[in-house]
Amino acid sequence: MIPQLIEFNGEVNPTIAAATPQTQTLSNDQSAAEEKGIPAYSAFAIPFIENRIDKWQKKDSYETLDEYRARMTEKNRDAKIAEMQRLAQQEYISKYESRVNLRHLELKPYDADHEVFLVTSPVLGEMIVPVPRANNEARIFASNWNGMQFKDPQYFIDKDHLALAKLTIITPSGKQYQYDNAAALNYTATNVEVHFDPITANMLASNENANKQTVQQQNVKLGTSDVDENIPENPTSNTKTFAVVIANQNYSNVAGVPLALNDGLAFSKYCEKTLGMPAENVRYYADASYGTMLRAMRDIKNIASAFNGDINIVFYYAGHGIPNESTKDAYLLPTDADGTQTEGCYSLNKLYAELGSTKAKEIVVFLDACFSGSKREEGMLFCPWRSAEG
Fold first, then answer.
1. C-alpha to C-alpha distance for 206 and 338, rounded to whole angstroms
2. Gene3D superfamilies from the xrefs (predicted)?
3. Which residues of the chain have pLDDT under 70?
4. Hey, CA dihedral for 158, 97, 102, 150, is it positive or negative?
5. Which residue spans within 147-287 are E strands per DSSP?
6. Is beta strand 321-323 parallel, antiparallel or unpaired with respect to 330-332?
7. What is the pLDDT of residues 225-273, one digit of tens each?
8. Architecture of domain 231-368 in CATH?
């Protein structure tokens, strides 16, 4: 076995290499070379050199023993191996360079930053060719690629395989470019991702003679609004704050109150998320009858009694309000009342008195109602106490 011929990492021994490899960012595809019938250099060179060294090491029958001993020194053997290595390289290149078809060279995208093209071969791997950008020279080079001539290729052994050391590339107009593997060049393949917003009709430039008339579209959203959806959240926990929320929208005997139920639900969410009340502390009553309103007040008074008044109370009402023009009193209108009999309505004086009786630390009352006799949105509800004379 010939020592120090091929390193096991695939690198050719320095005595074999004929040129310094060009700096590249991509590795050669040597499997393609093997498919073309070009073996690895070591597979060719080792038996080639061993066969010749074996013959050289044998004693010639016409050679004296002293002559043989003088010839068979370590120094002479190393020199003979180096000679055989050079011969093996020459034989390998001569034998397999004819199997390389330079017409199969493929031009890759231009690297404008380094002003180079990448050229690939299924046998020889990647090569970097310098081409200037100025005066559109690189563009012209690329457009003429299919008509290029390739002359004077020079080969060497690189990483245990056949490689191209130099090549002259000639354009149809006769301009020459040189590939030189010893030139210190770099090629970077750049992949660009674009994340701009898609083009819309509004981005297109308008014509000066464009129609000056304007047609608009308006979207009206009922039931929810930004106020209902974008509710701020507060991490504070108010376990001793209770809310009574009454939302009366659908009345049996009078016109309804649009969106009252939505307002009540939205206020309940604010109590939980913004004011930090636990969900069970928010008592929500939808379309409350007179009996339901009585029960709601009894419930909050019982809670206050259980806490000995050590609570805060928030009261919210959305719905119709009714005035009594004779007594100047105001009433909340339950959904089962019509306002003609105040006995079936909930007096504000009664409301304030019962809330005050809880002895809560703080009481806040929100009334989303009109007590003038008009509906909450527009128009009159009715005025049962107005005299016939007006």
1. 60
2. 3.40.50.1460
3. 1-36, 194, 201-228, 372-390
4. positive
5. 149-158, 161-170, 176-180, 241-247, 282-286
6. antiparallel
7. 666 677 888 888 889 999 999 999 999 988 889 989 999 999 999 999 9
8. 3-Layer(aba) Sandwich (3.40)
Contact 116, 126 (CB under 8 A): no
Gap between the Cα atoms of 122 and 93, Å rounded: 17
Report the relative pairing of strands 116-121 and 125-130 from DSSP bridges: antiparallel
* 254 within 8 A of 333, measured Cβ to Cβ: yes
Task: Report the SS3 class of residue 177.
Answer: strand
Distance CA 283, CA 296 (A): 8
According to DSSP, residue 165 is labeled: E
The domain spans of the chain are: 1-185, 231-368
pLDDT tens figures, 15-39:
333 333 343 333 444 555 555 688 9
Q: In which order are the strands placed within the sheet that holds 241-247? A: 282-286, 241-247, 312-318, 362-368
- What's the predicted TM-score (pTM) here? 0.41
Give the alpha-carbon dihedral of 337, 339, 344, 350, to 10 degrees.
Answer: 130
In Å, how far from its chain's centre is CA 275?
Answer: 36
Q: At residue 267, what are phi and psi to the nearest 5 degrees?
A: -65, -35
Token pair of 219, please? Answer: 């979207």
Q: Is 115 left (phi over 0), alpha (psi -120 to 50) or beta?
A: left
